[in-house]
Amino acid sequence: MSIPFTREIVSPKTEDKIRDRVRKVTEFQRPDGNARIVTEDDLDAMYDFFALPAVSDPIYTVEKPVTKDSVLRHIQRKAEAQTNGEGFMLASFDEAGRVTGYFDFTIWPNWSAAEFGGATHPDQQSSGRGRDGIFRSIDFVFETLGVHRLCFTAAHDNIRSIKLIDAMGMTRMGEVTSKGPNGQTRQSLVWEMTADDWKHIRMRM
């Protein structure tokens, strides 16, 4: 079994609309600065960011071990995904060019579904910005991309993420074996939420 657990085929028109919106993404506003699409020109900054164990260890989509070559492959994979209308990677940077946070989006246009993961720089954690960044990203998925369903996954030992996702009121769907780009696997909890679910959650906040 893989995500999304709920798979509802949408019309070709809706699928094409989502792909077009994904291809057009260039940036979005995060609490730690305006995030933009990551390109190969950002390789050094992204390597420095992913080389931090506190950043990359919990993220199964980041190839291990982290090297400049592995980070370059990741950037290239996400660029190809955006060309296909199936994903993209964004990052925010400080005045010195250091990455302060990033988000990695995977889109399934034919199911009108998405998943995203991300991380903030350790210096930025526990500032409340990570939570705000997730909320803005959820708004972005539903409102800008026009996707109907959002998935989240988290490893069993990622207590911080589990508490945050549960607190948002998302529905636990079960477990899945998540597979990384170079074959590494982890057992992950899975949550799902629809755009309508999110509207009701937002009203309670």
Pick out its properties.
single chain, 205 residues, alpha+beta, 8-stranded mixed sheet, 7 helices, globular
Task: Give a short synopsis of this structure.
With 205 residues, the protein is an alpha+beta fold. It contains 7 helices and 8 strands.
Task: Tell me about this structure.
This protein is of the alpha+beta class and 205 residues long. The chain is built from seven helices and eight strands. The protein has helices spanning 12-24, 43-50, 53-56, 68-83, 129-144, 159-168, 195-204; strands at residues 27-30, 33-37, 87-93, 99-108, 113-120, 149-155, 171-179, 185-194. Strands 1-2-3-4-5-6-8-7 form an eight-stranded mixed β-sheet, sandwiched between helices. Strand 7 and strand 8 form a beta hairpin. Helix 2 (43-50) packs across helix 4 (68-83). The longest helix has 16 residues, at 68-83. It is globular and about 40 Å long. The chain starts with 11 loop residues before the first helix and ends with a helix.
